[in-house]
Design a protein that fits this description.
This protein is an alpha/beta fold and 250 residues long. It contains ten helices and 15 strands. α5 crosses α6 and α6 runs parallel beside α7.
Length: 250
């Protein structure tokens, strides 16, 4: 990978998560921590991020374009999404969170007799012509850059429904199993989704252990299942299991 490509991926990762540690970024990109430190210094000098002790913070420049985020760790997300879709039985109802992994779950639901509810405009585009799926779109304020619906109308709509499954995204899972998010405006919607679901499935690739996030979405005991990768942090997975969460490896 060329340095410019690597640095662009660092900026994308920070915009998606809000912040990133040197060790986490090195693991994501498969390079040494020394290389990441040099990249962070250069990107800081260019004004593309803010260098802090141990890592960097995203520069406040709006949400990362959905297509760019979708391209990051695409194979891993697709494995997780495929395994998550296998949990659903025909005839059930599914609530899909915002984000690119939830979109990939939708891609694996095509042709099935299901009810799908979502605030994810990319999911709407993916499933709108699938006549086997009864598709319900929540109302709300449109975040165009991240293709999501948020706000009071979204939360109020969620209070009127109850679904069999929620597939939830996250910015990070703390070592104690708490689910976090870096986008404050999305957190009330995620909490309302949890309250509307019989079973809550968290979709989290290995980079989300620990990941990042300033706002608590839920405690581990509020989750039913976590679908993740075999090489995600074993200590965090153990904490989730102790809290009664089923950990499924994709």
């Amino acid at each position: 990978m060329l340095p410019k490509q690597r640095q662009d991926q660092i900026v994308r990762a920070l915009r998606a998560d809000g912040a990133g540690g040197v060790k986490v970024l090195a693991g994501k990109l498969g390079v040494s921590e020394a290389t990441i430190r040099r990249d962070l210094e250069q990107l800081h000098a260019e004004g593309r991020l803010t260098r802090v002790y141990g890592g960097a913070l995203a520069v406040d420049g709006g949400d990362e374009p959905f297509a760019d985020v979708n391209a990051v760790h695409a194979e891993e997300k697709d494995r997780i999404a495929r395994r998550a879709a296998e949990l659903v039985t025909d005839g059930e109802s599914v609530l899909l969170d915002i984000g690119t992994t939830a979109l990939r779950v939708a891609q694996h639901l095509h042709g099935r007799s299901l009810t799908v509810v979502t605030s994810n405009l990319a999911v709407l585009e993916e499933l709108q012509y699938d006549e086997q799926i009864e598709l319900i779109v929540l109302g709300g304020f449109v975040r165009r850059s991240y293709r999501s619906l948020v706000g009071y109308l979204t939360e109020e709509s969620l209070r009127q429904i109850h679904v069999d499954w929620l597939f939830l995204g996250t910015s990070g899972v703390r070592p104690d199993g708490r689910v976090m998010d870096s986008t404050m405006i999305e957190v009330p919607v995620k909490r309302a989704m949890i309250n509307a679901a019989e079973r809550v499935v968290l979709l989290a690739d290995r980079t989300k252990f620990p990941g990042h996030g300033v706002a608590r979405v839920c405690e581990p005991g509020e989750l039913s299942i976590v679908v993740t990768e075999p090489d995600s942090d074993p200590a965090t997975r153990a904490q989730l299991s102790e809290a009664g969460v089923e950990v499924v490896l994709a």
